Amino acid sequence: MxxxxxxxxxxxRVEVGRHERLVSSGFTKEALAAICDSLDADVETDDIPGKxxxxxxxxxxxxxxxxxxxxxxxxRKSELEAIAGELDGR
Length: 90
Fold this sequence. Notes:
mainly alpha
């Protein structure tokens, strides 16, 4: 059976050292910063930038994440699968 969006987000959170969420929610700025750090995405996370900046950096780093997507919204399921796969391969 395929994973739900919530399961994928939690898998990604755990992979980058964040805590699972019991309720459905998108990534926090801190979680996005942790993902960027884990992927070596080209973004400075010492002073955490906006979510759109970090989503763009992730989009540019992970094959399967549409770089031309609206960066103000969360990732689609197929994009979460690509991110999870990339993190799993590291």
